[in-house]
């Protein structure tokens, strides 16, 4: 099946699921309101966005240098650094570390990069038990589903759906729809996993070059347990997450938590700067960092598309997206959904694979308005649309240029150009169209599947302006 | 800017063919305010439909055909947030590196959305002569975010003593039109249009007013198909009707 048809099928499935749509509508309404409460002063918000945009842009401009510095400092701190160009390499590195240490059970904190590499599947097929410890991730792991949101992975499920999952997977526990009791069940199960796991795997929100510090933002304490209780901690992240200075972190953290969940600060903020030192009573014996490229270096080759990499994964763009709120994250069919997904995934995977995602956007601009690091998302979506239909596709920066160029569409735009680039032909066209308006069909699919057809005026504005005595030129 | 004597009116392709009454009302408002209004005959379209669909060469060719329409240094007034936004914000990008870039930029910087021009430049004063009524505003995404003029339509309606403005739920959310988005993703577009129509209906307002005819075409068509009989109207027509005694 071609990608466009598959996308339409996923969208139709989502739109026909009333429960799913109610879940997203109410979740997004709540999260939007909470974010808005955190930014009562627009001038302050804009100043903060400018600051965090600069920090991220500067980090990307100096990325090679900062990554070298990061590796040097991390190594000094006793953290082992590994580089992966592809998802396969990243997975193999993680497995290699576990295998060498005889580790066969893992607790995981939330990591979207591990979703990119499909790490869980890779490890499970090699005999390693992987338990997601973030509550949302734990829920979708039970449901065997991918995340539908980058911050709130199980946001598509309501309380009852979650209760049913717990009933099916933990029949020993009494059935309940009470959120605190459900959380209690998860806590009971996960505590034992934390205590006994050989290794913890986590993501990274920011990697600080000057101090060699890995920052991890979370709310449940599962991140702290995953990175401290097991004897091995493996962090995995994208190479774009590096920033230079520790002083860069407060503004980034501030805008991240407010933009993401509408919290002034999260319950936990972990700064990991090394394994357990002699004389210390806790902490992992080994800390590893796997830095993944996976197409990021190629994105960085283009001055405009580079902005994509400023992303700090807050999810505000999807929270405010009118398409996302109607169809949810799974309809996109990619690891990253919503506006950032529309921009990132075709660059990561190729326009020939997922370029039709760029059509799932009305260019309303809501995403660009809330992005904490001012990624011009609508502009980038428009750019990718142009790349997808270009006639002069050069394989290079972008994979699959021109792959969505369709002869019928090309013809339609050429015809449009002929009639709208020539004032003379345009006048002929509008005169004819208005006079023959009774010929206009009442059904123009797909427009009229949801609407009545527009009715052409008896006379065009140009003719009316003349009749009303307005000056022409 | 000082109050100009003369302006160019860029009517937009949707208004030209489907909503000429809105265009005429806009020009009459300007003329009544003492401004000389020129409607350049050679105008066709700002190029936005092709630009937003990725067909930049075609967009450039059509946009370029407009450049000769505005030879004098008069402001260009556009009765649509999205077409004004295309000229003001996307022409500089579209014409970048082209021989006529400077001309495109010159036109871009003197382009105004109609309500923006009426409020900011003309400081238009209105006297309501209509019967008490209620309206719901649907502000287009381009007027709100690209042009940043969402409050101008509110300011104009606030001058009408007998008009009560009712706010729909999710007021800032897109109506689902999005130009060719409505054809490429008809199911999502339709879902968004239906949700917006219901929110507007739920206000209980007598009419929906907008500064963009693209949104109005989408919303009126959706409401008609849904069997909702909520009239929609461009702000220019509504203002003329309320202040001139001329009703449709």
How does this structure look, described?
The complex is a heterodimer of chains A (473) and B (248). Chain A is of the alpha/beta class. In chain A, α16 packs parallel to α19. The termini of chain A are far apart. Chain A has a six-stranded parallel beta sheet with strand order 1-10-7-4-2-3, sandwiched between helices. A four-stranded mixed beta sheet of chain A has the order 8-5-6-9, with helices on both faces. Chain A is 50% helix and 10% strand. Chain A folds into three domains: 140 residues, Fumarate Reductase Iron-sulfur Protein, Chain B, domain 2; 230 residues, 3-Layer(aba) Sandwich (Rossmann fold), CATH 3.40.50; 61 residues, no CATH class. In chain A, a hairpin with a 4-residue loop joins β5 and β6. The mean pLDDT of chain A is 96. With 248 residues, chain B is α/β, with parallel strands linked by helices. In chain B, the strands form two sheets. Chain B has a four-stranded parallel beta sheet with strand order 2-1-3-4, with helices on both faces. Chain B contains 13 helices and eight strands. Chain B folds into two domains: 116 residues; 112 residues, Rossmann fold (3-Layer(aba) Sandwich), CATH 3.40.50. In chain B, α11 crosses α12. At the A-B interface, α1, α15, α18, α19 and α20 of A face α1, α2, β2, α3 and α4 of B.
What can be said about this structure in brief?
Chain A is of the alpha/beta class. Chain A is 50% helix and 10% strand.
Features of the shown structure:
heterodimer; A: 473 residues; alpha/beta; Fumarate Reductase Iron-sulfur Protein, Chain B, domain 2; Rossmann fold; 3 domains; four-stranded mixed sheet; globular; B: 248 residues; four-stranded parallel sheet
């Amino acid at each position: 099946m071609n990608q466009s048809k598959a996308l339409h099928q996923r969208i139709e499935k989502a739109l026909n699921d009333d429960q799913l749509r109610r879940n997203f509508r109410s979740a997004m309404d709540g999260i939007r309101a909470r974010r808005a409460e955190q930014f009562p002063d627009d001038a302050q918000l804009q100043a903060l966005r400018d600051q965090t945009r600069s920090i991220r842009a500067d980090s990307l401009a100096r990325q090679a240098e900062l990554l070298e510095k990061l590796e040097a400092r991390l190594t000094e701190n006793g953290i082992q650094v590994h580089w992966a160009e592809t998802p396969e390499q990243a997975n193999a590195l993680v497995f290699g570390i576990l295998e060498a240490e005889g580790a066969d059970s893992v607790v995981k904190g939330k990591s979207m990069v591990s979703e990119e590499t499909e790490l869980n599947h890779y490890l499970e097929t090699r005999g390693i038990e992987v338990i997601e410890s973030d509550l949302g991730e734990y829920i979708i792991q039970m449901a065997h589903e991918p995340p539908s949101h980058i911050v709130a992975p199980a946001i598509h499920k309501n309380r009852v759906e979650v209760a049913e999952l717990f009933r099916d997977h933990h029949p020993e526990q009494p059935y309940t729809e009470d959120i605190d009791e459900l959380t209690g069940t998860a806590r009971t199960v996960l505590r034992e996993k934390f205590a006994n796991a050989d290794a913890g795997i986590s993501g990274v929100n920011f990697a600080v070059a000057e101090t060699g510090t890995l920052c991890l933002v979370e709310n449940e304490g599962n991140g702290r347990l995953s990175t401290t209780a097991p004897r091995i901690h493996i962090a995995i992240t994208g190479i774009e997450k590096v920033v230079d200075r520790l002083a860069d972190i407060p503004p980034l953290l501030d805008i991240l938590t407010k933009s993401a969940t509408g919290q002034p600060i999260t319950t936990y903020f972990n700064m990991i700067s090394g394994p357990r030192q002699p004389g210390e009573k806790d902490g992992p014996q080994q800390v590893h960092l796997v830095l993944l490229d996976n197409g990021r270096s190629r994105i960085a080759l283009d001055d405009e598309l580079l902005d994509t990499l400023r992303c700090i994964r807050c999810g505000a763009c999807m929270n405010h997206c009118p398409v996302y709120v109607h169809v949810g994250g799974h309809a996109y069919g990619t690891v990253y959904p919503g506006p950032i997904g529309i921009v990132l995934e075709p660059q990561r995977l190729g326009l020939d694979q997922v370029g039709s995602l760029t059509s799932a956007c009305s260019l309303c601009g809501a995403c660009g308005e809330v992005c904490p690091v001012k990624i011009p998302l609508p502009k980038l979506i428009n750019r990718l649309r142009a790349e997808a239909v270009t006639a002069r596709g050069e394989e290079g920066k972008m994979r699959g240029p021109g792959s969505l160029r369709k002869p019928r569409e090309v013809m339609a735009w050429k015809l449009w150009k002929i009639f709208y680039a020539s004032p003379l032909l345009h006048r002929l066209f509008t005169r004819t169209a208005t006079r023959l308006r009774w010929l206009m069909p009442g059904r123009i699919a797909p427009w009229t599947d949801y609407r009545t057809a527009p009715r052409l005026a008896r006379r065009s504005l140009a003719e009316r302006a003349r009749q009303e005595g307005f000056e022409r030129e | 800017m000082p109050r100009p004597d003369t302006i160019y009116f860029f009517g937009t392709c949707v208004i030209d063919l489907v909503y000429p009454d809105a265009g005429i009302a806009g020009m009459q408002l300007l003329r009544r305010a003492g401004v000389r209004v020129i409607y350049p005959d050679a105008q066709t379209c700002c190029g936005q439909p092709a630009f937003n669909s990725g067909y930049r060469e075609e967009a450039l060719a059509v946009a370029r055909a407009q450049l000769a329409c505005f030879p004098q240094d008069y402001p260009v007034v556009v009765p649509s947030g999205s077409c004004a936004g295309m000229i003001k914000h996307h022409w500089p990008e579209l014409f970048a590196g082209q021989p006529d870039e400077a001309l495109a930029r010159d036109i871009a910087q003197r382009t105004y959305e109609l309500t923006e021009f009426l409020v900011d430049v003309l400081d238009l004063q209105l006297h309501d002569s209509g019967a008490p009524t209620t309206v719901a505003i649907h502000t287009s995404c381009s007027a709100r975010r690209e042009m940043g003029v969402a409050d101008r339509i509110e300011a104009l309606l606030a001058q009408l003593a007998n008009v009560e403005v009712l706010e729909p739920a999710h007021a800032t959310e897109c109506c689902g039109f999005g130009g060719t988005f409505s054809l490429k993703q008809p199911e999502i577009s339709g879902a968004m249009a239906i949700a917006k129509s219901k929110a507007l209906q739920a206000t209980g307002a007598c009419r929906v007013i907008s500064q963009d005819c693209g949104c109005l075409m989408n919303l009126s068509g959706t409401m008609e198909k849904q069997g909702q009989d909520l009239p929609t109207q461009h702000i220019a027509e509504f203002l003329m009707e309320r202040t001139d005694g001329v009703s449709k």
